Predict the structure.
Amino acid sequence: MRRSLPLLLVGAALSACATTAAPERPASPVPPPAAWRTAPPNSQGAQGALAADWWTLLGDAHLNALVDKALARNADIALATARVDEARALSRAAHSALLPTVDAVAGLQGSRQLDAFGRSYESTAEQVGLRVAYEVDLWGRVRDLDAAGRASLQASAAARDSVRLAVAATVARAYVGLLSLDGQLTVARQTIAAREAGLRVIARREGAGYSTKLERDQAQAELAGVRRQIPALELAIARLEASVSALTGDPPGPVARGDDLLALLKTPIPVEAPASLLAHRPDIAQAQDSLIAADASLAASRAQLLPQLRLSVSADRVFTDALPDPVALWTIGAGLAQPIFNGGRLKAQVQASEARKAQAAASYRGVVLNAFAETETALRAVDALQRQETEIAAQRAAIAEAARRAKDRYRAGYASYLEQIDAERGLLAADQAVIQAREARAVAAIDLARALGGGWTPAP
């Protein structure tokens, strides 16, 4: 027995020191396409990976500062980070099951008894010792639980990175929206100033008998029509500023920003081959790790149906006034437990684990399909909106020339004021369309960067 104790302890120590091999990452359930259907915006230039600070490609220092602040102070990111901390603690707890448990014990006992002659006497006994318990992982159940904990931790970290990517993209979209609204507000105010000047001209012409009251009424109606856009634009700006402030962890207030929407996006978003998308989207990594965790949990559930071997060792020293010297005591034991009847609980747990694995596999497939669809759609949007912006700019130039000619014809008396009003109304709509087209193209580029994973790379 004395020889068995060291051997058992050494075996337990060696088993505890064994590391769980990293599981293989599941292959993609959907083969990636050989190429994108829509040519990437950088197809004529050098191909390259998207940088993690992809928003800097928009070329706006104010936007860079806002995104940096949001990544540091956003409440959703803080929540996701806390969940990672929770998953890390649970992973450590699962790993601890691979190690023996060691407890220190101490006890004190006092008693009064009668000796053989009927005389009472008192005695005390003190006991100190150690208790060691260990489960021999015969079927890999504990190792599977450890693997599930580590995979869940990685899935939680990938989920946090997905939140970071979503926050950065949302801030960028809102910032572009603010610049667009600023531009539309500027155009509206410039149009109001021009309409007010035109109304003064009409009033003078009416006094001289060259214009009618109808023309003045038409001019006033057009002026009021443009003025009514101002409150709506100001309200939309206030709402977006409040949204950006919430994203950056600030109370509602003004948002510092540039003043030139048309200067954004001078550098195209780099796009890699479809196969590389699988390694650069955090939601795909999260789905993979969730599937790994579900598979390991299933293996652990199945192992619960098998016998479990537990070892226990105790060593104590007893001090008593009945003996001159302390007494050393030790025990060693091994127990084998085989589940026989539990009302079907263990089998039900296996079935539940199988269902969770099926859910994780279906989710993984759906995430991959959605990733390819999002990227393809974003590429098509960037291409279509770029061509649309070119056509809108050409249309605006033609409308501006028509408005100039209509104004000249009216002043020369060759056309009615209604003709000039129609031309100016078209110019206002064209100016706003140019701004909205640039906004749409910038938002499409942001969506493309997000669809590509925002330059995400897995942790080593």
Notes: The CA atoms of residues 70 and 167 lie 7 Å apart.
